[in-house]
Automatic annotation (TrEMBL):
This is FLVCR choline and putative heme transporter 2. It is a multi-pass membrane protein. Residues 48-457 form the Major facilitator superfamily (MFS) profile domain. It catalyses: choline(out) = choline(in); heme b(in) = heme b(out); ethanolamine(in) = ethanolamine(out). The lineage of its organism: Eukaryota, Metazoa, Chordata, Craniata, Vertebrata. InterPro entries: FLVCR1-2_SLC49-like, MFS, MFS_dom, MFS_trans_sf.
Length: 492
């Protein structure tokens, strides 16, 4: 048996990097106690990983803003375009519907072409859709504004599955969940802006020409921001670092591409019972959040007429609280690795928050709604990165983009069902019945989460390599090979 050892030094592209010492074992011979050992491969963390995460978050933010810019002032757009509430709801639900048939082609593209091409394509589509909408500030242009929203919805397919994949490609084992939660925060920040800004930019005025002017201003601002972000993505965004950040990523890179089958990967995921339980429970939770976000204006206006601006502020409260929840959950996961326990607790608290919101919405006190909506958002939105990271753990070494894509597909399906269902219930029986309708499905999701078997495969892959290497160093020491000799530095 021969042993060679190397320590990699230097930086990538001149950028400073955080380095970890690496030992490579080249094993030969027939020794049964060492032939199965995996090498501890070199890993490195680059400071530019934060730039990649920031750029993606900006792009995700601009796309999420497009989703809610109609729904939060639905009464104004209903009057402007002379359409009913269901047509306005479809301007949001088109995002859900588009995702379902396109998720598999886009996740295949993510696996075969990489993160950069998918992100560039998504930011380009988002930019095109925003510019289409700049010409629709006219009561006769509803069909064209729907086309613009449809193009933006295609960009969403290139967005929602990226956070866990990007985090795995660029971030270390002790920060991957935090990075994923920050990636999700970009989307949530866009939703927050979508709740806050449209009611401010588009006041509820009677003069149609003045209303058209305000709508046009909003559309041009969105188009300008989307264009700026697209240019940044094209110029700066990179696929992955030259040296992987974790042992699991190093092993994934060493796998042979001709051994990978996207279709076989999908089938393995569909046969993974813990993952499929998570797919359903994730869809139920996030589908409820989508329904609440889409119908929030209608629910608030029913009990507090004329409060369009406060409806937006309540939506902002939901998302800001959710952003805090997402970040705290990501940090907690990195420190504890308690994926199932944390997911279950947050799910139970989401159900409790939804019940409290349902019973207090009609009390006639807006400050109470702000508090209960904030609590609901903290847990319901905080659940998003938990679902992504738990899925990666349950499905490793399958592609993070594929597992996230299936989670989001489930969310879109339930989002359509819940938005239409709750909308019908709101029209017939009121907001209380509509919110209890969602509580029932959150209860089902809580029970399903409790049934998930916690098989943390990614953690096992990282730990296995490290433990095997420590065992090998111990064995070498017992044979008289000193640790300093084994770890002798050699510059390449």
């Amino acid at each position: 048996m021969s042993v060679q050892d190397h320590e990699w030094t230097g930086s990538f592209g001149g950028a400073p990097a955080e380095r970890t010492r690496s030992v490579f074992y080249l094993l030969s011979g027939d020794s049964s106690d060492t032939a199965h050992l995996l090498p501890l491969m070199e890993t490195k963390l680059y400071k530019r990983r934060w730039v990649m995460l920031f750029l993606f978050s900006l792009y995700s933010m601009s796309n999420a803003l497009m989703w809610l810019q109609y729904g939060i002032i639905s009464d104004i757009f209903m009057r402007f375009y002379d359409i009913d509430s269901l047509a306005i709801d479809w301007l949001s639900m088109i995002y859900f519907l588009t995702y379902i048939p396109l998720v598999l082609p886009v996740t295949w593209l993510l696996d075969s072409r990489g993160v950069r091409e998918v992100v560039v394509m998504g930011s380009a589509l988002n930019c095109v859709g925003a510019w289409i909408k700049t010409g629709t500030a006219d009561p006769s242009m509803f069909a064209m504004t729907f086309v613009g929203q449809f193009v933006c919805s295609i960009a969403t397919v290139c967005t929602l599955g990226i956070p866990s994949r990007l985090a795995s490609l660029w971030f270390g084992q002790q920060e991957v969940s935090t990075a994923c939660s920050i990636g999700v925060l970009g989307n949530q920040l866009g939703i927050a802006i979508g709740f806050l800004v449209p009611p401010i930019l588009v006041p509820n005025v009677d003069d149609m020409d003045e209303l058209a002017y305000h709508i046009r201003v909003m559309f041009y601002i969105c188009a300008g921001v989307s264009t700026f972000i697209f240019v940044l993505v094209v110029m700066v965004f990179q696929e992955r670092p030259e040296i992987p950040p974790t042992q699991s990523q190093a092993q994934a890179r060493n796998s042979h591409p001709d051994e990978y089958s996207y279709q076989a990967s999908i089938m393995r995921l569909l046969r993974n019972k813990p993952f499929m339980l998570l797919v359903i429970s994730y869809g139920l939770n996030v589908g409820c959040f989508y329904a609440i976000s889409t119908l929030l204006n209608r629910m608030i206006i029913e009990h507090y007429p004329g409060e369009e601006v406060n409806a937006g502020r309540i939506g902002l409260t939901i998302v800001i609280a959710g952003m805090a929840g997402s970040l705290l959950c990501g940090i907690w996961l990195d420190k504890t690795k308690t994926y199932k326990q944390t997911t279950l607790v947050v799910y139970v608290l989401s159900l409790a928050g939804m019940l409290v919101y349902a019973f207090t919405l009609n009390l006639g006190r807006l400050w109470v709604v702000f508090i209960t909506a904030g609590a609901l958002g903290f847990f319901m939105t905080g659940y998003l990165p938990l679902g992504f990271e738990f899925a990666v753990e349950l499905t490793f070494p399958e592609s993070e983009g594929t597992s996230s894509g299936l989670l989001n597909c489930s969310a879109q399906i339930f989002g359509i069902i819940f938005t239409i269902g709750q909308g019908k219930i709101l029209d017939k029986w009121g907001t209380f019945a509509g919110n209890i309708f969602l509580c029932v499905f959150l209860l089902i999701g809580t029970l399903l989460t409790g049934l998930i078997k916690s098989d943390l495969r990614r953690q096992k892959a990282n730990q296995q390599t490290e433990v095997q290497t420590v065992s090998k160093l111990t064995a070498d020491s017992e044979r008289g090979i000193s640790t300093p000799e084994v770890l002798k530095e050699r510059k390449l």
